[in-house]
Specification:
With about 130 residues, this protein is an alpha/beta fold. Helices cover about 40% and strands about 20% of the residues.
Length: about 130
C-alpha cells in the first residue's frame, strides 16, 4: 500500500463519498519543499511554514477558544492545526471542511496524516 492508500483508508472510515472524491480527483501539481521542516508548494503557495510548522499551527489553533468543545476548521493544510486542536482534551468534535480536493490529494500523497484522521472526534465535511 502507498501513503495515499493508507490515508484514504481512514478517510473512507469517516465518509466513503469523500474518499471516493479524493480518489477520483487529480492531485494538484506540487513541489515538496525541504527547509527546517518539509512542506508542499501547491500552485505557487506554501501549505505550511517550512521553518516552524509547529509554531505556526499553534498560532492558528489559538484562534479557537481554548475551552471550545467543538471547532470547525476551514481547510486541510497538512494536518498540523488539526493535531494541535486534538491535543485539547475538552474538544469533543473537530469538523474539517474540505475546500480544495486537488490540494488535499497532493498532501495525502506526500504526508502521513493517519494520526489525526484516526481520531474519532474528527468529522470531514464537504
Amino acid at each position: 500500500m502507498t501513503l495515499l492508500d493508507d490515508n484514504l483508508s481512514l478517510i473512507r472510515a469517516h465518509d466513503a463519498s469523500i474518499a471516493t472524491l479524493l480518489e477520483e480527483t487529480a492531485a494538484m501539481p506540487c513541489e515538496r519543499l525541504s527547509g527546517g521542516v518539509d512542506t508542499l508548494v501547491v500552485n505557487g503557495k506554501q501549505l505550511t511554514s517550512s521553518y516552524d510548522r509547529a509554531f505556526e499551527s499553534g498560532f492558528q489553533a489559538d484562534e479557537a477558544p481554548v475551552d471550545a468543545t467543538s471547532v470547525t476548521l476551514y481547510g486541510w493544510g497538512l494536518g498540523d492545526v488539526q493535531r494541535v486542536l486534538l491535543e485539547r482534551e475538552q474538544l469533543t468534535q473537530l469538523q474539517v471542511v474540505l475546500l480544495h480536493p486537488g490540494a488535499i490529494r497532493a498532501g495525502l500523497e506526500h504526508f502521513d496524516q493517519r494520526d489525526w484522521l484516526a481520531d474519532p472526534r474528527v468529522e470531514l465535511v464537504l
